[in-house]
User: Fold NAD-dependent epimerase/dehydratase family protein from Ruegeria sediminis.
Amino acid sequence: MNEHNAKKAPEWLQGDAPVLVTGAGGFIGRAVVRSLLNAGANTRALVRSPGAGAISRLGAEVTRGTIASPGRALRGVDTVFHLAYDLRASGSENLAEFRKFLNAIAHAGVSNLVHMSSVVVHDGWPVGDLVEDAPITPPDNGSSYRGAKIAMEALISDAVKKGQLSSATLLRPTLVYGPGSRIWSEAVVERLRSGPILVPDMPRDHPAGRPFGLCHLVHVDDLARAAVVAGAAAKPGLRAYLISDPSPTTWPEYYCAQARALGVGTIEKRPFAELEDRLMPLTVGSVDHGPSLAARVSSKLRTIVGNDTIDVVGRRLRRILQSNVAEQYPDRFLFDLYTATGEIDVSRAEAELGFVRGADVQGRLDEVAAFYS
Assistant:
């Protein structure tokens, strides 16, 4: 089995053997495909939606299928970049498909896996300071996104220990933004257009010198480059990397920067207790047990007409519904992020992957504004 390192990365990337990207039709997947192609890699994309044409036009070889039934996609492949995850399905459903894919990898003789995990696997996110060996405790309910990501990491670790994989890299990005990000770019744009965004002010009892309201972003292009280097520089065994902007901004600063790029939107600070008091308490029914009916319908439509068509229609409908300006109060999920105090140590990614922020944040937010104009 070949051992790769950063100095030999160009030779490896330009070799004849194809590298496979799963989830290539998704937001992050497309960026990884572009980054691999830019590096000269023989890139094969596994896609299941009608958006295959867009991937093919980038220059990648396109193979139709799913991770549960990859078919010929693994033929001749030594390295896999695994990014597939269906947010419209439950964590349990995603985990079941991943088990099948991991078995397929073992039978196909794949030796090197780069797996897109998430910072949410860590117990301390987003409050505690994090390094790669920070505690990870599996939740009682395995149907959640976090539970699935933790379980996937455990399965990969077992595969390495059993010799089914020679090397595996776990990437744990924070909040991935950029043109095409439905959660951390598109939703932010919609929020700014809908009315004033309310964020909590620092509480009076907050420890002096401790950061408050940190917005841990990572641009999709930076993450994609880190993924490619991780694949090329892999060594035997299992490694994990936290991936985030080394110089995080705060949520008010992020919103203000995006508002400047859009030319619309205001941000207002409100007392911490005022916003906290409006939050609904967590109940058994609020636990993530899987996607809603609407999400499942959306998933079915996407398999018929493609992600891009659904996204365009969805954006137009939301623009129509945003005619009534209203104050944007945070829900519990956003409130926890708005009050984040934890710092992310990315020194391992910097030292071993050469991870850096590729461009200034404001310039990239200008691109987001242009994309959604």
User: Anything to note?
Assistant: The chain is about 40% helix and 15% strand. The radius of gyration is 21 Å. The longest helix spans residues 91-108.
